[in-house]
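ok so i was messing around last nite and threw this chain in just to see what happens. nothing serious, just curious
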Amino acid sequence: MEALVVCGDKSLGAGITIWDMEKGEQLLHIPTCASPPHGLILLGDHFIVASQVHKHGSFGGGAVFIWPLNKPQVPIRSYPIEAIVPLSCTKDAIYLAGGAPSGNVYVWEVTSGKMLRTWRGHQKSLNCLSFSSDDSLLISGSDDGEIRIWSMISLLDVADHDSMPSFFHSLLEHSASITGLLSTSGSSNSVLVSSSFDGTCKVWDMISGRLLGTQVFTQSITAITHDPGEQLLFSGSTDGRIFVNSLDIGLGDNSVISDNHLMVLSGHMEPITALSFSTSRLCLVSASEDCTVCLWNVKSWVVTRRFVHKKGQITNLVVIPRSLLLPVVEGHQRFNCQSRLSLLDKYPQPATTSQETITHLPTYCSLEDHLSKIGFRSTDVIKQQILELEQGRTPCALQMKVETSVENRLWATKMTKHITDMNKHLRSRLLDLIRCRLILSRKLEFFSSEKKKKAKINSSSSPSRE
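result:
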């Protein structure tokens, strides 16, 4: 069973609304939230993160709010140095990325709140941010139609912290603002799908940066998504229609295809603002400026349920498992990362030897490794690779070192917690012993005083008997 999370950007009072997708009833309402497009995400399996713009249309200031789904409480409010519009996070919920109207990009470590990197990513405002399917690349799209691909290993390199990072690729085929970025996980080509107000969706090879195909529409495209099998691409337009086409059409031959023979879903009266997919119900979820959310059956392509957002138009939607809203039973650990979060830093903190944190890098595949064909290699090449691996000069060796350091840190943390618990237990036992001794000493004093009283009484009554 899944739940639907939606929010708008017009009024802070509209907040976030969460519906049961099966029954259609409202499950939860979180007040005070107004997020721009691509500004609401699910962090791991237990937090909702939303960027906030203080005044609609003004990007002079803003905030980032974080709510725990299973424990309603006041959100963690962070106030970056400038407003953050798009947000994205890695699948393991370790890193959070945000983009600003100035073109700056920010990367934070989630649990500590430490800002790991900030740099001028684009000349125009950032509209979209997305991590690749393996979290090794960060993709950014700007208002001028440019898409840039950044290597996470380069961004997290402590030695290169103060220099301006260089992008992996710059994709310049779009002529208008970027409205959506999707990376596929099942393809060996590391495919990226982008949409734009120029009325096109483009398919790219992220490793080589080559354009593989273009889908041309008669309307500007405002949102995109694909099904879990990554076979179908859904493209929402400014006139409220949703186009459905195969994701592999023209893949590899840089072909241009029109929308003359595409399947079209018509159920909204205003521009599409967000698209998502429900894996349990196997239905497409669409939101529009007409303040409605539609659930589309993938077999009949009809609307099976319609939600009306009375608080105003919708800019973001997220589909989550309904179980995430249930409180955690005491003594059971449901999520795999720390449940405590810190405020996000305003500025990057300088790394020092005593305070330097070990950063877990995602699995990385270099361009040479990706393009090399499977075959026999000479003994000299193999020896050279073994030597480089032993000397730690390859990404794989770096990854193994980082993972080992992370494991050692986790073991040290666990042992520290164990020793702290033992210390608390011993202190508790010591207090109990002191308390028992005090009680025993008081009893002995009482018995001693009583004995003296009896002895005194006996001594005073002896002459009368004589």
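not much to say yet. The radius of gyration is 30 Å.
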